Amino acid sequence: MGLSSSAGGTAWQNEPGNGEEGEGTVSSEVQEASCRALPAVQRCAQVEVFTDLDVSGGKRARRGYDAMLARIRAGGVAVVAAFDQSRAFRSTLIAAEFKALLEETAHSSVDVVFFHGTFDRSPVGGFSYAVLAAAHEMERKMTGGKIRAAYKYAAARGQMVGQTPGGYRREPDGSITVDEVAAETVRRIFTEYASGRHSARDIARRLNAEGVSPLPRSRGAGWRFYSVAELLRNVAYTGQTFSESRRRHGKGELMPAQWPAIIEPELWQTSQRLLARHIGRGGRRTKGEERPYAFRGLLRAHVARTKGEERPYAFRGLLRAHVARGSLLPSASASFTSARVATTRTLATSRALARMTCCRGAVLSSSSWSS
Asked: Which structural domains are found in the chain, ordered by start?
């Protein structure tokens, strides 16, 4: 964790890691208290603190860090303090960015202090700063590799790796048990969705209307349709896991897990069949995907085409299919079958009269749909 202060009234704090003492890190409270005890910080008239908890110092996108940089650029900052250099940044690129900012003429007077270590603007100090940044980056990457290997090994044994899903509780000894209060909500969501009468959005509305508390560690203050859909796709509720990772719908082979199931296999399978019906329907189209049209292949423009030229359609861009909802535009109130018959008859018997020119935007009148 780091902290910066100014004589005019600013301070910054950044703390990567989980903030738990005794697990290779120093808690955010200890780091802040240590920084406030530094003489340079105590001489400041006011202190502001910017915090990034549970965010790695190797990440460039950090709200607290970005806010601190903006505060320095705004002026009036006298001191920037951190517990040590590794608490501020564990990346050579980010460390160089911070040093470059302080070398600008407008900020060259800002004093940087660490509870552990020093910040020296001399050539030798710059060399030490760069070497330490490289060492911290190497340590971060090597530690990350070890953690990933340990997680992979634990996942292969059916242990719960990562965040514990709502409905379960991690005990002090590391075992996973069922949180019966939250588990009832999980069972209710699966049951209502598997009935086929409620969508994920409907269920979210009902839960919010009834004041049902979101599951522990849920994102946001209330229920959202995407959180319900994410819950419905979580295979952990069946007492199963993946041999490599549960993230992003699983990686590796599906296998029994070392925790009890909350829902029955039949309920899970029914829910997955219903979810599969909505995959790829609605929402934004992927890049390069063509928009579907209701009358494509039925209403065609009678115009000359060169070889290889795509046939233009008179209704392209005018009558579009609402595929996600399974309905057509209100203007196409006639049945699809009668429309097809009428269109075929019109094109076959009166092609000259029913000529449709795309460039002029002419379309069949409503009377043409009568059979």
From this structure: 2-150 (3.40.50.1390), 168-276 (3.90.1750.20), 288-371 (no CATH)
Cα separation, 83 vs 3, in Å, equals: 7
Asked whether residue 298 carries a pLDDT value surpassing 70, the answer given is: no
According to the model, what pLDDT value does residue 302 have? 52
**275 vs 52, 80, 142, 264, CA distance in Å?**
37, 52, 40, 17
Q: Which residues of 95-224 form beta strands (DSSP E)?
A: 111-116, 168-170, 176-178
Cα separation, 27 vs 301, whole angstroms: 72
Q: What does the DSSP 8-state code read for residue 300?
A: -
- Report pLDDT digits (tens) over 102-119: 899 999 899 999 888 888
Contact call for residues 130 and 122 (beta carbons, < 8 A): no
Backbone angles phi, psi at 87, to 5 degrees: -75, -25
Q: Give the phi and the psi of residue 262 in degrees, each rounded to 5.
A: -105, -30
Type of residue numbered 68: M
Q: What is the pTM of this model?
A: 0.50
Using DSSP's 3-state secondary structure scheme, residue 124 falls into helix
Residue 333, exposed/middle/buried by CB under 10 A (0-12, 13-18, 19+)?
Answer: exposed
Q: How much is the average pLDDT of 224-242?
A: 91
Share of the chain above pLDDT 90, in %: 30
